[in-house]
Amino acid sequence: MSPEFLLTSLIIVASPGTGVLYTLAAGLSRGRRASIVAAFGCTIGIVPHLAAAILGLAALLHTSALAFHAFKYLGVAYLLYMAWMTWRERGALRVETEVDARSACQVTVNAVLINILNPKLSIFFLAFLPQFIAANEPHPLASMLELSAVFMAMTFAIFALYGLLAAAMRDHVLSRPRILLWLRRSFAAAFVALSAKLALADR
In total, how many domains does the chain have? Predict the structure, then answer.
């Protein structure tokens, strides 16, 4: 495994996006456990895209405008839903003192859907992973699986770190309602901005 792959993956994973945003919100509003759950959910959410890239199904999204746009607008609608729920104090920044099994399940489902409903991820992995596999590689499928596993591990580790750092600031934020209100509005606006970016995305 090349250092170039590790460095590129680190930059990609650490770059702010919907997964990072949701994990930060989970850490701030629900604490350490929720941030780990959110990081896990976001990581699971990229599995279908990695599988699609490995199996070649992502080519369908690349070649079929109808499939791509249908998938894309589902993602846009879900991000707008997340923005609305966050604004109404029922979404990503809903404050909870304890994270029970039901709450953890909700955090996981939201995190998974945030990544699953982004068709750009499948196309990204289809273009990204083969660059780091040699043309004469005797077992390309095994190499793709190895690269995918490393990418997922980095995703979970980086997202969890983001979430734990946010959770460490939780008491400071919750004790200041005005800061929490400002953060809630900022996160809602960020979800809207990300939905607009996805809506404008092309194949």
Answer: 1
